[in-house]
Structure formats: structure tokens, C-alpha cells
Design goal:
By secondary structure, the chain is an alpha+beta fold. Among the domains are: about 5-25 and about 40-125 and about 280-360 and about 470-540, FAD/NAD(P)-binding domain (3-Layer(bba) Sandwich); about 185-220 and about 235-270, no CATH class. The strands form six sheets. Strands 1, 3, 4, 12, 13, 14, 15, 16 and 24 form a nine-stranded mixed beta sheet that branches. The chain has a seven-stranded mixed beta sheet with strand order 10-9-19-20-21-18-22, with helices on both faces. The protein has a three-stranded antiparallel beta sheet with strand order 7-11-8. Bound molecules: flavin-adenine dinucleotide. Keywords: FAD, Flavoprotein, Oxidoreductase.
Amino acid sequence: MAKVIQLADPPILPRAWLCLLSHISEQTRLSTISPTSQHPLWCKKGPCSQRTPNPPTPNEPPNLTMRVSIATCLLLGSTVVLAKTIRTKVAILGAGLSGISAAKTLAHHHKITDIVIVDAQDAIGGRLHDVPFAGIRVELGANWIQGLGKNPIWVMAQQAVLKSVFANYSDIAYYNVNGEADFSKESDAFEEAYTAYLALAGKHQAHKQLDISARTGFSMVGWFPDTPAKEVIEYWSFDWEEAEPAEISSHLWSSISYNATTAFSPDNNFVVDQRGYKLIPEAAAALFLKKNDSRLHLNTIVEKVVYSDYGVQVFTNKGDVIVADYAVSTFSVGVLQHEDVKFYPPFPDWKRQAIFQFHMATYTKIFLNFDHQFWGEPQYFLYADPTRRGYYPVWQNLNAPGYFPKNTRTNILLVTVTDAESKRIELQSDEATQAEIMVVLRSMFGHDIPNPTSILVPRWIKNPLFRGSYSNWPAGETFEEHSNLRAPLGRLWFSGEANSADYFGFAHGAWIEGAKAGENVAQCLKSGDSCHSLNTPYYPELFKCKERPVFKRET
Ligand SMILES: Cc1cc2nc3c(=O)[nH]c(=O)nc-3n(C[C@H](O)[C@H](O)[C@H](O)COP(=O)(O)OP(=O)(O)OC[C@H]3O[C@@H](n4cnc5c(N)ncnc54)[C@H](O)[C@@H]3O)c2cc1C
């Protein structure tokens, strides 16, 4: 169990000095522990990366760690209220799907119950987050279980009897500025092109060829979105999934993640359970956490993390210091990019590059409630704006059969925007967004429709706990660069959806990555010296291929 040591309130001594004393005693303790970890085995995978003989890891001896701690104390100065020191084997930073999955693997499967889970929010779930709107609860974050079958999220959803509706993407109506339209020809053409797009990615992968952008991939198979109808059809199948346009997304990895997720099953279900999608991590947590369990620290912001090969110290906004043998950070790649949490020592360049290179995309679900339903029965509507791609393009009818109860108070439409439109909308008032939306809706459904009774516009980029909605693999990023995201630094491990090569961006990616991190840390705790070599190669330097392409002269 996590041990909580309550220190006396420091009335006279300056807080920074107390912090210092606490660290000196902690470092003395740590220095007496023989390190259970060796240097990671620096793996080399793939022709374009090279290991260095002396990797620049934060493998400092305790005295250097102590210097870091002292610096941290001085930095913290009088802002630290030293409330308590909490000692634990594993600190899990973040109580989203990844954090709960890591904790479950440790506590439930490996019986390593001396853990502490910290999250800034007041509930577990992270980006599974439901809020009240128009008399019901709606999901601000993840909403679909994507790929059913053996998808662990779907398996857990069934165990928890989570209510969801089959997402019927064929149940769709098309609109442009003149009202209802027919884009079925464009839709069929895209479907054919997408099959060829996936086949081309498979060919590139089989021949170990360089990645190209998704846009180049589409062009290569003859798909050119040169009309508003084609643009919105492409948006519906690509941007609405990746949350970024084809120009900046990876052809290879968008195809790999599509294939991996549809391998569970091609079907998706939309969660409508009024207990929220977060029921899944809540049910998993109930297997190893009691009600009001003191190991779960909600409403607690992690401000600083000091890590080394000997342990990890986590400083919270409450002034507490969690002193752990290991820690798992599950913060989003957006949070790491914004440096919302300070890490000491600062990350080495290979890690920083991996963090900055990956993309945190944004997918914004705008909810509108009306006093009556003026739209038809299909689950989905597409709107092709004549001049602006991605301008309020995908609409969802939450009154469709099986969704929310249709009544006089709850008549909800959900419209999604992504990327640049998300950024733009976050910066303007909700009134301005509503006014834009009503112009679009009136061109779709006629001028007599009423204004909404309420509107809900999430702001994922502004939120310092997320800084976007989910990750996307940028064009040209290599497997090795991506592996550096996950690679541990000393006893600090990294998890979260972005670290999943097959399922980045997805709820199941977060769950599967969390389980891997939990498994790795469990092995470290159990077997010590070889744990770093487990599935976590890292590439401190990335080079161009030595093999020169062969120049072929036509004769
Ligand atoms: C709008 C949107 C739509 C999505 N749609 C889908 C979908 O339909 N299907 C699907 O499969 N996936 C979807 N996703 C993605 C899915 O939600 C994520 O992949 C998954 O929930 C990420 O889980 P995680 O544990 O990796 O990260 P998170 O859930 O982000 O967990 C990290 C935790 O860290 C906490 N944290 C951050 N900073 C601090 C700090 N300084 N101190 C303390 N705590 C901190 C956060 O509060 C958070 O709880 C969507 C996401 C969003 C946002």
C-alpha cells in the first residue's frame, strides 16, 4: 500500500529549506538502494537508425539526482507547501484509459498494489468525459468503440453492459448550400480509390519503401478531390478519423492503423450510455481500487517530475511529493509538447524530437439542442461548403432511432470540425460559432428553422490537461522516431494512446499501451536488471539510409 507520511506544518522554517531537507533524506534512502536497473539494451532496428555506444540517458548517480532535487527545491522556493511525502512503488501519472490499464496490470494481474494514481480531473476517464447537456449526458471526448470483436474496449463494454448504438455510416444524407444533394457517385469513387490506397501502402510496406503523405497516396491511385462534393466525401472518410488533412498525414501509418482497427471488426458502435463511456475505466479500476481509495489522487495537478535510474519524484500542486521506485507518465503528447509539466533533468534531444515531431490533432464535437427536430431520420448528414473544405462538414442526428430519447426538450445535432477549423473556433465566442452554424443549417434545411436552445463547444487545445484531442502520425515519421516516444528515461516510463504504433489516436490504443507499460514496470520490479530491454528500443540518433537508391537509366 502507498504510505502517506504527514509532516508537521512548517510555521517558522522557509518551505524551500524543508523541501531541501526532505530531498536530502530521500536521496540518502535512495542511495542505499542498489540500483535494480542497468542501462537499457540499446537496440537497433531498421537500416536508418544507429545506436550510440554511450547513450545520453539520464543515468545520473544519486548525487547528481540530488543536485537536480536541490535545484528543484530552490526553484520551487516559497511556492511549495510541503504537505506530505507519499512513498510508493509505482506512481501512475494520469487516470485515463492508459493510466487505469497500467494500474490494473500492476495491481490486478501482478498483485503489485503499492501504487499511486494521480490525475488533475475530479474523475477517472481522461478523454472519456461526459457532461450534462440539454437534460442528458453527452460525450465531449471519445464516443465510438471502433472495431468490435476482440477490441479490449468492446470486450469491457460488453462486460459492463455499456449501452451503445451501431454506427450505420450508410444511413447518410448529403447537402450543399442549396439543400439536399446526391454525392453517391463521389462516395463510390472514393471507396474504390481507398481500396487502392490501402493496397499501395501494403506494397510500400512490403518493399520497405519510404513513407509518403496520404495526399500523395490518394493522388497515386487517381483520387483528386477537385469539387466540394469530393472534398467532403474525402473529409468524411479521412479527416473525420485522423483529425488532420491528407497533406500532413502518413500514407503508410494511416493505412496500418485502419487495417489494425478494422481487423477487430469493420463495425463501430456509438456510446449513448448515461453513465458515460468512462464506465469502462471505472469498472476496470473497481477491480483493484476500493471506494475512496487513498491511492487514487484526483483533483491533483502534477507540476514537476524528477527522474533518474534510481527512482522518480512527483511534485503536485498540493505541495505533496510522491516518491516512487517507478513512474508511468500517460500525459498526452500535446501536454508533453506544451511542457505543461516540468521534467528534471530536461529530456534528451532524441526524446524531445520524438515528442515535437508527432502530431496532436484536434477533433471538436459541437452539440446543439433545438426545441424540435426539423431534420430527417438518417444518422449522418454531410455538408459540402462551396468554398471552404472542412466547414461544418459532418453532422450527426442524436435523435436517430436507438440514440437518445426523442422528446420536447432533447433534440440534439452534433457537428464536428477538425484541425484548423477547431483552432479557429476555439478562439471565437460560442455566439459567433452558433451564428456561423445557423447560416449553414439554414442552407441545408430552410430559413424557417429556429435557433438552438443551447450550444456546447469544447476547447481541447486550450485545455492544459490535453492540448488537443488525439494524436496523428505525420507523413514521413519513421517507426524508429515513434519508438522514441515510448522509450523510458531511467525509471520514468511513458504510455498513452500516442505511443501505440498500430492504434494511435484510439481508445483501444490507450488501453493496450497502458497494459504494456504496466507489464514492463512489473517485470522491472520483479526481475530488475533486464527490464529496460523489454519492447522498448530507442534510437538516440536517426540517420538517412546508407544504401543509396539505384539510379536506373532507361536504355
Ligand atoms: C474529441 C475526442 C474524440 C475522440 N473520439 C474517439 C472515438 O470515437 N473512439 C476512440 O477509440 N477514441 C477516440 N478518442 C481518443 C481517445 O479518447 C483517447 O485515445 C484515449 O482516451 C486516451 O487515453 P490516455 O489514457 O492515453 O490519455 P488521457 O485520457 O488524456 O489520460 C491522461 C490523463 O492525464 C491527466 N493529466 C494531464 N496533465 C496532468 C497534470 N499536469 N497533472 C495531473 N493529471 C494530468 C488528464 O487529466 C488525463 O486524465 C477521442 C478523443 C477526443 C478528445
